Amino acid sequence: MPNRNTFSSLAAARRRLVTRAVHAGWQWVQRSGAVTAERPGRLRFRRIGAGTKLAFPQGTVFGEPWIELGDHCIVGEQVTLTAGMMPDLDLGPDPILRIGDGVVLGRGSHVIADTTVTIGADCYFGPYVYVTSTNHSYDDPEEPVGKQWPRMEPVEIGPGCWIGTGAVILPGARLGRNVVVAAGAVVRGEVPDHAVVAGAPARVVRRWEAATGWQPPLRTPPPVPIPAGMTSEQLLALAELVDEEPDAGVR
Protein backbone atom coordinates (compact mmCIF):
# COMPACT_ATOMS: atom_id res chain seq x y z
CA MET A 1 0.00 0.00 0.00
CA PRO A 2 1.52 3.38 -0.92
CA ASN A 3 2.62 5.41 2.04
CA ARG A 4 2.00 9.08 2.76
CA ASN A 5 5.39 10.10 1.31
CA THR A 6 4.44 8.57 -2.04
CA PHE A 7 1.22 10.61 -2.22
CA SER A 8 3.12 13.76 -1.19
CA SER A 9 5.68 13.19 -3.92
CA LEU A 10 2.96 12.69 -6.54
CA ALA A 11 1.14 15.85 -5.41
CA ALA A 12 4.38 17.85 -5.53
CA ALA A 13 5.12 16.54 -9.02
CA ARG A 14 1.63 17.53 -10.21
CA ARG A 15 2.06 21.02 -8.75
CA ARG A 16 5.37 21.42 -10.59
CA LEU A 17 3.78 20.33 -13.86
CA VAL A 18 0.85 22.71 -13.39
CA THR A 19 3.23 25.57 -12.54
CA ARG A 20 5.32 24.94 -15.63
CA ALA A 21 2.21 24.74 -17.79
CA VAL A 22 0.85 28.02 -16.39
CA HIS A 23 4.17 29.80 -16.92
CA ALA A 24 4.54 28.42 -20.45
CA GLY A 25 0.95 29.41 -21.25
CA TRP A 26 1.44 32.94 -19.92
CA GLN A 27 4.63 33.36 -21.95
CA TRP A 28 2.71 32.29 -25.04
CA VAL A 29 -0.05 34.80 -24.24
CA GLN A 30 2.54 37.57 -23.77
CA ARG A 31 4.20 36.78 -27.10
CA SER A 32 0.88 36.53 -28.92
CA GLY A 33 -0.59 39.65 -27.33
CA ALA A 34 2.38 41.92 -28.00
CA VAL A 35 1.74 44.67 -30.55
CA THR A 36 4.16 45.37 -33.41
CA ALA A 37 3.95 46.93 -36.85
CA GLU A 38 3.48 43.46 -38.30
CA ARG A 39 0.93 42.42 -35.66
CA PRO A 40 -1.00 45.52 -34.58
CA GLY A 41 -4.04 43.57 -33.40
CA ARG A 42 -6.99 45.93 -32.83
CA LEU A 43 -4.73 48.99 -32.51
CA ARG A 44 -4.41 51.21 -35.58
CA PHE A 45 -1.69 53.73 -34.83
CA ARG A 46 -0.95 56.58 -37.20
CA ARG A 47 2.53 55.07 -37.33
CA ILE A 48 4.31 52.27 -35.52
CA GLY A 49 7.96 51.98 -36.47
CA ALA A 50 10.06 48.98 -37.37
CA GLY A 51 11.25 47.02 -34.35
CA THR A 52 8.80 48.73 -31.97
CA LYS A 53 6.93 46.52 -29.52
CA LEU A 54 4.13 47.10 -27.02
CA ALA A 55 4.30 44.41 -24.35
CA PHE A 56 1.20 42.50 -23.30
CA PRO A 57 -0.95 43.27 -21.41
CA GLN A 58 -1.26 46.81 -22.72
CA GLY A 59 -2.78 49.59 -20.64
CA THR A 60 -5.52 51.91 -21.85
CA VAL A 61 -4.87 52.89 -25.48
CA PHE A 62 -7.14 55.11 -27.56
CA GLY A 63 -6.86 57.81 -30.20
CA GLU A 64 -4.32 55.68 -32.07
CA PRO A 65 -4.82 57.49 -35.41
CA TRP A 66 -3.23 60.53 -33.71
CA ILE A 67 -0.34 58.60 -32.10
CA GLU A 68 3.03 58.10 -33.80
CA LEU A 69 5.57 55.59 -32.45
CA GLY A 70 9.12 55.69 -33.82
CA ASP A 71 11.43 52.81 -34.67
CA HIS A 72 12.82 50.38 -32.09
CA CYS A 73 10.73 51.58 -29.15
CA ILE A 74 9.95 49.41 -26.13
CA VAL A 75 6.61 50.02 -24.42
CA GLY A 76 6.32 48.04 -21.20
CA GLU A 77 3.32 46.24 -19.75
CA GLN A 78 0.27 48.23 -18.64
CA VAL A 79 1.44 51.45 -20.31
CA THR A 80 -1.37 53.91 -21.10
CA LEU A 81 -1.14 55.90 -24.35
CA THR A 82 -4.04 58.21 -25.16
CA ALA A 83 -4.72 61.02 -27.61
CA GLY A 84 -7.76 63.17 -26.90
CA MET A 85 -9.95 63.36 -23.82
CA MET A 86 -11.95 60.25 -24.76
CA PRO A 87 -12.17 57.67 -27.54
CA ASP A 88 -13.76 58.26 -30.92
CA LEU A 89 -13.04 61.99 -31.18
CA ASP A 90 -11.93 63.65 -34.41
CA LEU A 91 -8.70 65.41 -33.45
CA GLY A 92 -7.92 66.90 -36.84
CA PRO A 93 -5.25 66.18 -39.45
CA ASP A 94 -2.10 66.34 -37.28
CA PRO A 95 -0.70 63.86 -34.75
CA ILE A 96 -1.21 64.63 -31.07
CA LEU A 97 1.26 62.24 -29.44
CA ARG A 98 4.68 61.77 -31.05
CA ILE A 99 7.21 59.31 -29.64
CA GLY A 100 10.67 59.29 -31.23
CA ASP A 101 12.98 56.44 -32.20
CA GLY A 102 14.49 54.24 -29.50
CA VAL A 103 12.19 55.38 -26.67
CA VAL A 104 11.63 53.07 -23.69
CA LEU A 105 8.48 53.51 -21.60
CA GLY A 106 8.64 51.62 -18.32
CA ARG A 107 5.90 49.38 -16.94
CA GLY A 108 2.76 51.14 -15.77
CA SER A 109 3.65 54.54 -17.24
CA HIS A 110 0.96 56.91 -18.54
CA VAL A 111 1.24 59.38 -21.43
CA ILE A 112 -1.96 61.44 -21.65
CA ALA A 113 -2.04 63.73 -24.70
CA ASP A 114 -5.17 65.86 -24.82
CA THR A 115 -3.07 68.40 -26.70
CA THR A 116 0.36 67.80 -28.25
CA VAL A 117 2.93 65.74 -26.37
CA THR A 118 6.33 65.10 -27.97
CA ILE A 119 8.93 62.67 -26.61
CA GLY A 120 12.32 62.90 -28.33
CA ALA A 121 14.46 60.02 -29.52
CA ASP A 122 16.33 57.77 -27.08
CA CYS A 123 14.40 58.82 -23.99
CA TYR A 124 14.18 56.25 -21.21
CA PHE A 125 11.31 56.21 -18.71
CA GLY A 126 11.40 54.22 -15.49
CA PRO A 127 8.25 52.47 -14.26
CA TYR A 128 5.09 54.43 -13.40
CA VAL A 129 6.05 57.75 -14.99
CA TYR A 130 3.07 60.06 -15.61
CA VAL A 131 3.10 62.58 -18.46
CA THR A 132 0.04 64.73 -19.10
CA SER A 133 -0.83 67.77 -21.15
CA THR A 134 -4.02 68.37 -19.11
CA ASN A 135 -4.72 69.44 -15.55
CA HIS A 136 -7.98 70.16 -13.75
CA SER A 137 -8.76 73.77 -12.94
CA TYR A 138 -10.24 74.91 -9.66
CA ASP A 139 -11.22 78.51 -10.41
CA ASP A 140 -14.80 78.14 -9.20
CA PRO A 141 -14.84 77.41 -5.46
CA GLU A 142 -18.47 76.23 -5.65
CA GLU A 143 -18.03 73.67 -8.43
CA PRO A 144 -16.41 70.25 -7.83
CA VAL A 145 -12.88 70.33 -9.25
CA GLY A 146 -13.51 67.25 -11.38
CA LYS A 147 -16.39 68.99 -13.16
CA GLN A 148 -14.46 72.15 -14.05
CA TRP A 149 -13.06 72.47 -17.56
CA PRO A 150 -9.37 71.46 -17.58
CA ARG A 151 -6.44 73.50 -18.81
CA MET A 152 -4.28 72.10 -21.59
CA GLU A 153 -0.72 72.98 -22.52
CA PRO A 154 1.70 71.16 -24.86
CA VAL A 155 4.48 69.05 -23.35
CA GLU A 156 7.89 68.55 -24.96
CA ILE A 157 10.58 66.16 -23.73
CA GLY A 158 13.85 66.54 -25.60
CA PRO A 159 15.99 63.68 -26.92
CA GLY A 160 18.16 61.58 -24.66
CA CYS A 161 16.30 62.24 -21.39
CA TRP A 162 16.10 59.84 -18.45
CA ILE A 163 12.87 60.06 -16.44
CA GLY A 164 13.06 58.30 -13.08
CA THR A 165 10.48 56.03 -11.49
CA GLY A 166 7.25 57.72 -10.46
CA ALA A 167 8.11 61.14 -11.92
CA VAL A 168 5.27 63.40 -13.05
CA ILE A 169 5.59 65.72 -16.06
CA LEU A 170 2.90 68.40 -15.93
CA PRO A 171 1.21 70.42 -18.70
CA GLY A 172 3.44 73.05 -20.27
CA ALA A 173 6.70 71.33 -19.29
CA ARG A 174 9.54 71.66 -21.80
CA LEU A 175 12.59 69.52 -21.08
CA GLY A 176 15.79 70.09 -23.00
CA ARG A 177 18.25 67.52 -24.29
CA ASN A 178 19.75 64.82 -22.02
CA VAL A 179 17.82 65.91 -18.93
CA VAL A 180 17.75 63.65 -15.87
CA VAL A 181 14.54 63.73 -13.83
CA ALA A 182 14.91 62.18 -10.39
CA ALA A 183 12.47 59.54 -9.16
CA GLY A 184 9.30 61.06 -7.80
CA ALA A 185 10.00 64.55 -9.16
CA VAL A 186 7.11 66.76 -10.29
CA VAL A 187 8.24 68.78 -13.31
CA ARG A 188 6.68 71.94 -14.70
CA GLY A 189 8.01 74.81 -16.81
CA GLU A 190 11.31 74.95 -18.70
CA VAL A 191 14.29 72.67 -17.97
CA PRO A 192 17.57 73.46 -19.77
CA ASP A 193 19.75 70.97 -21.64
CA HIS A 194 22.04 68.71 -19.61
CA ALA A 195 20.35 69.39 -16.28
CA VAL A 196 19.40 67.17 -13.34
CA VAL A 197 16.12 68.06 -11.64
CA ALA A 198 14.64 66.72 -8.41
CA GLY A 199 11.90 67.52 -5.95
CA ALA A 200 8.25 68.56 -5.97
CA PRO A 201 8.10 70.98 -7.62
CA ALA A 202 11.31 69.98 -9.39
CA ARG A 203 14.29 72.33 -9.43
CA VAL A 204 17.70 72.10 -11.09
CA VAL A 205 20.18 70.46 -8.72
CA ARG A 206 23.05 69.92 -11.17
CA ARG A 207 23.91 71.23 -14.63
CA TRP A 208 26.61 70.73 -17.24
CA GLU A 209 28.30 73.66 -18.96
CA ALA A 210 30.97 73.38 -21.65
CA ALA A 211 33.33 75.75 -19.81
CA THR A 212 33.03 74.30 -16.29
CA GLY A 213 31.65 70.77 -16.70
CA TRP A 214 29.18 69.48 -14.12
CA GLN A 215 28.30 71.87 -11.34
CA PRO A 216 28.16 70.86 -8.55
CA PRO A 217 30.86 68.33 -9.52
CA LEU A 218 29.87 64.68 -9.77
CA ARG A 219 30.58 62.71 -6.62
CA THR A 220 31.23 59.39 -8.36
CA PRO A 221 33.85 58.53 -11.00
CA PRO A 222 32.60 58.01 -14.55
CA PRO A 223 31.93 54.40 -15.55
CA VAL A 224 34.73 52.62 -17.38
CA PRO A 225 33.67 52.14 -21.02
CA ILE A 226 33.71 48.69 -22.59
CA PRO A 227 36.91 48.33 -24.63
CA ALA A 228 36.39 48.51 -28.37
CA GLY A 229 36.20 45.14 -30.06
CA MET A 230 35.27 43.14 -26.95
CA THR A 231 32.84 40.33 -27.78
CA SER A 232 29.81 39.24 -25.77
CA GLU A 233 31.60 35.96 -24.92
CA GLN A 234 34.54 37.90 -23.46
CA LEU A 235 32.19 40.05 -21.40
CA LEU A 236 30.49 36.95 -19.96
CA ALA A 237 33.86 35.41 -19.13
CA LEU A 238 34.94 38.62 -17.41
CA ALA A 239 31.72 38.71 -15.36
CA GLU A 240 32.25 35.13 -14.22
CA LEU A 241 35.85 35.97 -13.24
CA VAL A 242 34.69 38.95 -11.14
CA ASP A 243 32.05 36.81 -9.41
CA GLU A 244 34.72 34.29 -8.42
CA GLU A 245 36.93 36.89 -6.71
CA PRO A 246 36.19 36.94 -2.95
CA ASP A 247 36.85 40.69 -2.65
CA ALA A 248 35.34 41.71 -5.99
CA GLY A 249 33.88 45.19 -5.84
CA VAL A 250 35.45 46.05 -2.48
CA ARG A 251 38.04 48.83 -2.77
From TrEMBL:
GO MF annotations, alphabetized: O-acyltransferase activity
Ranges that cross the membrane: none
GO cellular component: cytosol
Domain of life: Bacteria
Pfam families registered for this protein in UniProt: Hexapep
InterPro entries referenced in this protein's UniProt entry, alphabetically: Hexapep, Hexapep_transf_CS, Hexapeptide_acetyltransf, Trimer_LpxA-like_sf
Keywords: Repeat, Transferase
CDD domains according to UniProt: LbH_MAT_like
Family: Belongs to the transferase hexapeptide repeat family.
Listed name of the protein: Transferase hexapeptide (Six repeat-containing protein)
Lineage summary: Bacteria, Bacillati, Actinomycetota, Actinomycetes, Kitasatosporales
